[in-house]
Design brief:
The complex is a heterotrimer of chains A (390), B (335) and C (561). Chain A is of the alpha/beta class. Helix content of chain A is 39%, strand content 20%. Chain A has 12 helices and 18 strands. Chain A has helices at residues 7-17, 32-43, 57-69, 80-95, 120-124, 138-155, 180-186, 210-242, 268-278, 298-305, 326-334, 359-368, and strands at 2-6, 22-25, 50-53, 74-78, 101-106, 131-134, 159-164, 172-176, 203-204, 250-253, 260-264, 285-290, 292-294, 310-315, 318-319, 323-324, 342-347, 375-377. In chain A, helix 6 (138-155) packs across helix 8 and helix 10 (298-305) crosses helix 11 (326-334). Chain A is globular, with a radius of gyration of 21 Å. Helices cover 32% and strands 14% of the residues of chain B. In chain B, helix 1 (39-51) packs across helix 7 and helix 3 packs parallel to helix 5. Chain C folds into 4 domains: 13-33 and 504-559, Alpha-Beta Plaits; 37-116 and 456-470 and 487-497, Orthogonal Bundle (Fumarate Reductase Iron-sulfur Protein, Chain B, domain 2), CATH 1.10.1060; 128-223 and 377-438, FAD/NAD(P)-binding domain, CATH 3.50.50.60; 226-374, FAD/NAD(P)-binding domain (3-Layer(bba) Sandwich), CATH 3.50.50.60. The longest helix of chain C is centred in the last third of the chain and has 19 residues, at 420-438. At the B-C interface, helix 1, helix 9, strand 9 and strand 10 of B face helix 17 and helix 18 of C.
């Protein structure tokens, strides 16, 4: 049934349909509405679960670590500083191979403090060992949230569902909410194999020395690499049930013979998709909607970029002193292609700066200009800076 | 994705071995790698003995975690979860929430050292208490960061030497007082918070059982001598813990909803110097130096203050006072 | 094969057992069965700690059996022994020593009341042994020989067995039904008792030696010592032991107005009390020894059952310690007084102890009778060849005589014994020596190191007073009623519970509870023999906590290579 819902509310309801047994969260803008909506569902008796209102994101992550280890389906959500305060626990959850699902309402990281959207927070924890999936709109946020539990529990890897703060979390859209029965059919109850159980008392979280730590890291890496199969299967199964796919690891839109490609994650995909139709450019371009950032689908990106001369990467976060983050990874993925495209990295929309439709023709102009640096912040207004700091 | 078992323990013999026939619940097994005479290892075993098998233990990073679980071995016979240094209380909250969600009655015991409890894990602990999780938190208090090599913690007693509070021309060991954690815990208005010592096993066991019988958050502070960190002979661990209680520096008390309940009366208070002189961490207090004397007197005053504050001075011999509680007879402890 | 990493690096329960921490150890704990001080102090060789442990376990029958493996007559010794065990008891340094004699007597009385018997003695397969003298030494020897399977013929000059126990100990200290019961039980083992057989009159040593495989002489010291003061002897001279025996046998005794008894043993005290109760106004005991008390040198103290001395003083007997009689004041052949002088035993220039009287300390005591009770010597008739003119036998620790193979001696005939318990010990040791000799092995007497007070951990014991024994008040004391009462079962149990189990396992669980490494295993419920706990050296790190916290000093740390 189509409903007009705010993104946070829709995600809250989707999560509730997954019947989490423990939810722990600490409020932070722009994740707040998700937690508030879940709290209301619990208060109204529409969601039967242990809602643990913790004293920090650190404890939120720790609580779901504990509950997940005890075999309960567990969920949390956060943003920005909250994600960073969780950092130590996020690594730990992943290393313990616990199937936790977390919604990251993407937001900039201070200082200066800024509550608006970019991807700096989830990028900061990209090495924590989580699966990271980006959503371009609220329908995808709903569908991915449900898929996330399925993926997490099948792979015993935690999944971070990334949705842009405000742009998605606070935006009303018409959304097809799935039926509870359908979700129940799609997502069987969790039966975690290593749960804390007095009848089979395992010790979780042991000390591993140099003689096995390398293997622990390798197996974690291998598990993430292998998880692509489950990500694809989860999406395909969901599509079979609902007719809606979220696009697996990535999807390519536009003419196949385009010599230019643009790679984007998150809601900016929709902005640029719209801009491409409003501002048709001379050169043919295709849009690569990158959904899965971890595991990083290098082979799929290479295939998508086959035949391209130019590849534009639109960054929503930067690595100061180096440049882009996603762009570097795309470059690495394209290395060694027979006809290696030129990769243009542009950061836009940092800390919630508006990304107007005109961004698209500007990008194309920038690509056309020769001698363009490989990375720049497209929408920076240098005149706002003292000369010596430009 | 296949499940791989670590090297299996030796095949169980046909007949039960003497170890398997011990008439007590063995929650913490032999073969752990604690130092000789480790108070914490003993305290943890005693806690589990009293708690029984239907528990889940969470454990902060620290000596206990390290010496019990060098993979692929584990000394635990209860489900056990270690995550980080500062989140034992929080993961315990999660485990407890899971148990509640599943309708299980299994008790959750969170464990940590004084570093993970007084200091870095304090916020998570406070949150756990405030949210009234049905968890017993046990802090093994050995009064410094022992796992990292004896650095001062919020629990280190005044004037004690650690590697980060060394005595010297300008200092006489730790400058600050031992944090009064128990009062802070009690201020959360939890149903039960108590201190005990590994040197008084009967008291320790009773308090574990009492705490586990209570629905809601409970807290036990267990004084646990550390031969390495305190600088005493391994064989004297129990004796030193006993002296800490008998001199008044470590009061053994029970706080019910924040109010002082029972205390273990001290039959004959010992001078603090009897306790201090057995430990290298207080060696500088016995130098021929007016500051040393002053600090000895300071510690005596702190002990006297505890004795007054908690009314620890016994009123004649009591079977449950410091001298009576461990009385033995043929066939076991008196009670 | 490489160990395969588990997902998330989980571990299985209790797998630490694969890691043997015992290799860290440089010292290891081990159990050491010490001798408790009570054991080492007992002339009979009783291990009071061991049988008190059985009482603590509420197994009085087993306690009695352990006791009577050494001493067949606990109801007697519980009454008449001066119990050096209690003086040695470590608990005396903590609060008050255990009333060992009280519990011993209770066990003995329980055995009589419940008709407990010794284990049946094996048929006489070991050969025939002659025992001469049915006093404590002879009874003990006969008992132990019989239990070892020998056929025993027991001779005594008197019509009944018992020796001095029967003839010289007042009923107030030893009711005869108690004595009779314990002797009857010994005889019940199948001993051939031949009364009215005196050595030298009815028996010849040579005949005994040729008819029996070995001979034990427990003939006591039956001959009074010559006594005079500087050559003077009272006209009404009689020695103390003689007067006491006569009183016990026929009830008659001379009645002086004031009497002085010269001597410091049980005979002196018993006789003094008889006289006092008979109505003699002044009864003095003059002794070269000291009265017991704080600071007294134990080797210098009266050889008297301590409570008997206490009771005697209560009854009004005057003791003159560190004195001797220097002169008798005579009117004709009749004594009218005596002169005492202070003296001490002091080392002389050659390192030997000698008695030194102190000039200027002379005092006069007006008495009309002076009686010596200074001990007796062996009656040499019939055994002159063994005595070599000496007053007593000279024998080794087992009672073996150097120049007469197969002849062993014990009890008062050795001259340095002086207690019933020592005589019982002699009988036991002689039985071992005879058994060893006849089976061609060396005789052995168990010797263990003695555990001292400082080895105990007293934190684990509460202070407690000894459980008092009832006692007849002075005005109710008679010549026949036993003065000291016995324990009730509850009292005996309470008193036994005070035993600190010095140097032996108390089964208290301390080591089991306090081992940080779970390296002490409990093997069974309560076992006082030390088999209760076992060290698991696979895991013991040698920290020594168990040794420090053992209340009894039963665990010691030793180097471990």
């Amino acid at each position: 049934m189509l409903e007009a819902l705010e993104g946070s509310q829709a995600v809250a309801r989707a999560v509730a349909m997954c019947r989490p047994e423990v939810v722990a969260a600490y409020p932070i803008t722009p994740q707040t509405h998700i937690v508030e909506n879940i709290s209301k569902l619990v208060a109204d008796g529409k969601l039967i679960c242990e809602l643990v209102s913790v004293e920090s994101e650190f404890s939120a992550a720790s609580v779901v670590l504990g509950s997940s280890a005890a075999g309960a389906r567990s969920y949390t959500a956060s943003s920005s500083q909250g994600i960073l305060l969780m950092t130590e626990v996020l690594f730990n959850i992943a290393g313990l191979r616990l199937p936790v699902v977390l919604t990251c309402a993407n937001r900039a990281v201070s200082a200066p403090i800024n509550i608006w959207n970019d991807h700096q927070d989830s990028m900061a924890v990209r090495d924590a060992g989580w699966i990271q999936i980006h959503c371009v709109d609220n329908q995808e946020a709903v569908d991915t949230s449900i898929q996330a539990f399925r993926i997490a529990e099948a792979t015993e890897l935690p999944v971070m569902v990334c949705m842009d703060g405000f742009v998605l979390t606070h935006t009303l859209e018409t959304i097809e909410m799935p039926d509870q029965k359908l979700v129940d059919k799609y997502l069987p109850p969790l039966n975690f194999s290593r749960k804390l159980d007095p009848r089979a008392p395992l010790s979780l979280g042991t000390l591993v020395g140099p003689e096995h730590f390398t293997e622990a890291r390798h197996s974690h890496h291998a598990a993430l690499m292998k998880s692509t199969a489950e990500i694809l299967a989860a999406d395909a199964d969901w599509a079979a049930l609902t007719g809606r796919s979220c696009g697996g690891l990535l999807t390519v839109e536009g003419p196949e013979d385009a010599r230019t490609a643009i790679i984007i994650m998150g809601s900016t995909v929709c902005t640029i998709r719209e801009a491409m139709s409003v501002y048709p450019t001379k050169r043919k371009a295709k849009l690569i909607k990158l959904r899965t950032f971890r595991p990083f689908p290098a082979a799929e990106i290479r295939a998508a970029c086959e035949g391209c001369k130019d590849v534009v990467v639109l960054e929503r976060a930067i690595s100061p002193g180096a440049g882009g983050i996603l762009g570097v990874e795309v470059k690495a993925a394209l290395m060694g292609m027979k006809r290696q495209p030129v990769v243009h990295e542009f950061a836009v929309g940092l800390g919630g700066r508006d990304i107007p439709l005109e961004t698209w023709p500007r990008l194309m102009d920038a690509v056309a200009r020769d001698g363009e640096p490989s990375f720049s912040i497209l929408d920076v207004e240098l005149e706002k800076l003292p000369v010596e700091e430009r | 994705m296949n499940k791989i078992e670590p090297a299996a323990p030796e095949a169980p013999p046909q007949e039960l071995s003497p170890r398997d026939r011990q008439p007590r619940w063995r929650g913490l097994e032999a073969g752990h790698r604690a130092c000789q005479g480790c108070g914490e290892a003993l305290a943890a075993r005693l806690v589990l003995e009293a708690a029984g098998p239907d528990v889940v233990v969470t454990n902060a990073t620290g000596c206990l975690e390290v010496f019990t679980t060098p993979w692929p071995q584990s000394a635990w016979r209860v489900p056990w979860l270690h995550s980080l240094f500062e989140n034992s209380a929080a993961i315990a909250s999660g485990v407890e929430a899971a148990m509640k969600a599943k309708g299980q009655r299994t008790k959750v015991i969170a464990m940590g050292g004084d570093g993970g409890t007084f200091d870095i894990g304090f916020q998570a602990l406070s949150g756990m208490l405030e949210r009234m999780h049905n968890v017993l938190y046990v802090c093994y208090d050995n009064e410094a960061y022992m796992n990292t090599g004896i650095q001062r913690s919020g629990s280190t007693p005044h004037a004690a030497m650690t590697t980060t509070s060394p005595p010297g021309k300008e200092r006489m060991g730790k400058r600050h007082m031992k944090k009064d954690l128990l009062s802070i815990i009690a201020a959360h208005h939890v149903p039960y918070a108590a201190s005990t010592s590994v040197s008084f096993p009967a008291d320790l066991r009773r308090k574990v059982r009492r705490a586990l019988d209570i629905e809601g958050p409970t807290f036990l502070l267990v004084h646990s001598p550390c031969p390495l960190g305190w600088g005493h002979d391994a064989s004297r661990s129990i004796e030193i813990g006993r002296l800490a209680v008998e001199c008044g520096l470590f009061p053994v008390v029970e706080l019910e909803r924040g109010e002082l309940g029972g205390v273990m009366p001290i039959r004959e208070p010992r001078p603090v110097t009897e306790y201090l002189k057995l430990q290298n961490r207080f060696r500088h207090l016995f130098a021929d130096d007016h500051r040393a004397r002053e600090e000895r007197e300071h510690l005596q005053a702190l002990a006297d203050h505890n004795i007054d504050k908690y009314h620890l001075r016994g009123d004649g011999a009591d079977p449950l006072d410091t001298a009576g509680i461990d009385t033995v007879r043929r066939g076991g402890p008196l009670r | 094969m490489a160990t395969l990493l588990t997902r998330g690096a989980y571990a299985l329960p209790g797998t630490s057992l694969n890691f043997k921490t015992g290799t860290w150890r440089s010292e290891k704990p081990q159990h050491k069965h010490w001798a408790a001080p009570c054991h080492s102090a007992c002339p009979a060789g009783e291990d009071a700690q061991a049988w008190l442990a059985k009482v603590q376990e509420h197994k009085p029958r087993e306690a009695w059996e352990a006791l009577t493996r050494v001493n067949p007559m606990p109801a007697v010794t519980g009454r008449v022994c001066p119990h050096p065990c209690e003086s040695a008891c470590n608990r005396g340094q903590y609060d008050e020593s255990i009333t060992i004699h009280g519990v011993e007597r209770w066990l003995g009385d329980q055995a009589i009341a419940n008709r407990w018997t010794y284990p049946e003695a094996p048929k006489g397969a070991g050969g025939r042994i002659a025992v001469v003298g049915a006093g404590p030494a002879g009874l003990s020897a006969a008992y132990h020989l019989r239990r070892r399977g020998f056929e025993v013929t027991l001779f005594d000059a008197m019509p009944e067995a018992g020796g001095l126990l029967r003839s010289a100990i007042p009923l107030t200290r030893l009711p005869r039904d108690v004595l009779d019961a314990e002797i009857a039980r010994i005889m019940g083992l199948g001993i051939d008792f031949q009364p009215r057989h005196a050595l030298g009159r009815d028996l010849r040593l040579d005949d005994l030696r040729s008819s029996y495989r070995a001979v034990f002489l427990g003939i006591g010291a039956g001959k009074s010592r010559e006594w005079s003061v500087d050559g003077a002897v009272p006209g009404d001279y009689a020695d103390g032991l003689h007067l006491l025996k006569e009183w016990i046998a026929v009830g008659g005794i001379p009645m002086p107005k004031a009497v002085a008894i010269h001597g410091g043993g049980n005979t002196a005290v018993d006789l003094a009390r008889v006289w006092k109760r008979a109505g003699v106004a002044e009864v003095h005991v003059i002794t070269a020894s000291a009265l017991p008390g704080p600071g007294a040198d134990p080797s210098d103290v009266l050889n008297v059952v301590p409570r008997e001395l206490k009771e005697a003083i209560e009854e009004g007997i005057v003791f003159h310690e560190h004195r001797t009689i220097q002169r008798l004041l005579m009117r004709g052949s009749k004594v009218v007084g005596l002169e005492m002088v202070r003296l001490r035993k002091l080392p002389d220039g050659k390192g030997r102890m000698a008695r030194v009287a102190f000039e200027g300390t002379e005092t006069v005591l007006h008495v009309d009778m002076v009686v010596p009770a200074i001990g007796e010597v062996v009656e040499p008739t019939g055994i002159e060849s063994l005595m070599h003119g000496a007053n007593y036998f000279r024998a080794d620790a087992f009672g073996r005589l150097k120049d007469a193979e197969g002849v062993l001696v014990g009890g008062d005939s050795r001259g340095d014994r002086g207690t019933v318990s020592a005589a019982i010990g002699d009988g036991r040791k002689a039985a071992e020596a005879i058994d060893a000799m006849l089976s061609g092995r060396d005789a052995v007497e168990e010797r263990r190191d003695v555990v001292t007070f400082d080895k105990l951990n007293l934190h684990y014991f509460e202070r407690s007073r000894r459980v008092a024994l009832s006692e007849l008040p002075v005005e109710k004391r008679t010549d026949v009623d036993e003065i000291e009462g016995g324990y009730s079962p509850a009292e005996a149990s309470r008193e036994a519970d005070r035993c600190l189990s010095c140097g032996n396992c108390l089964a208290c669980d301390n080591c089991w509870t306090l081992c940080p490494d779970s390296a002490v295993l409990k093997m069974k419920e309560i076992a006082s023999d030390g088999s209760h706990y076992r060290f698991d050296y696979d895991y013991c790190k040698g920290c020594g906590v168990c040794a420090v916290e053992c209340p009894c000093g039963f665990i010691e740390m030793v180097a471990d290579d």
